[in-house]
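Maleylpyruvate isomerase family mycothiol-dependent enzyme: structure, please.
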Amino acid sequence: MSLHPSLQTYADAWTHSVEAISELVTPLAEGEWSRATPCPGWSVRDIVSHVIGADCEMLGDPRPIHTLPRDLYHVQTETQRYHEVQVDVRRHHTAPEMVSELEYTIIRRSRQIRNETRAPSALVRGPRAVEETLEFAMRRRAFDIWVHEQDLRRALGKPGNLDAPGAYVTRDMLLAVLPKVVAKDAGAPANSAVVFDIHGPVEFLRTVRVDADGKGTIDGAPSLGPAATLATDWETYVRLSCGRVTPEAVADHIKIEGDTDLAAAILRSMAVTP
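Here you go.
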C-alpha cells in the first residue's frame, strides 16, 4: 500500500509550499529573519518556527515543554497559545539553526508522507490533542502552509504561487465556511442571497443562499436578485479571510453592489483563521 489517492492532492500542495518556503528563507541574512509579516505578531523566523513545529507534531514528536512570556499581546486565545509554544521556543535560534531544522523536518515529513499507508478516515492526534481524521489533518496542513508561504512572500517582497496547488486547497477550505460567515456571523436576512465574484489567479463565482430558517448554503449558480454582491481579487479575498488585513485597509480593492450594510457586516466577519 501507499498514500491513498484522496490524500495525494494535499501531499502535493504541502510539498510545493514547503519547498517554496525553504527556497525563500535559505539565503536570508540574519537580520531578515526578524522582518514583520502580515501574520499578527509573527516575524519571518516565527512563521518558519510554526511550520517546523506543526510538521513535527504531524510526525508525532513530543511538544516542547515551554512557558510563554506574559507580554505576548498578540496571543489572545487558547488556540493561539497552543501554536505560540512552538514559535516562542525558537525565537532565539540563529538563521543557520532555523534553516537546518527546517530542512531536516522537510526530509522527515516527506519520508512519512511517502510511506503513509493509513486510510483517510484514520484518526490522528490534532492540535490540543483533539482527534481528527488523517484527511482533514493533511488538508488543513496544506491550507496552513500555503497561507504562511504567502505571508513570507509579502514580508520579503517576493510575490508568487498565488495559483499553486495549495491555493486551490485554500479556496475550498474558505468556501466551506462562507455560509456560516454570511448567515450566522454577518446575520444576513432569511430568504436572501449574497454573491462573491473573485478574479485573479484563482477565479470563482459563488452564491451563498440563506433559507427561511436562517441557514446558509453555497453553490456556483448566479442569483438573479442578490441582497449584495462583493467583488474582489483572489489575494485580497485570502488576506481578508485569514485576518491579515482589515476591510478598511483594502477598500479600494473591493466592489460592493446592493446592501452596503450587509456587505460591511460580511467583510467584518470574514476572518476565519485562529
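Notes: The chain has eight helices and seven strands.
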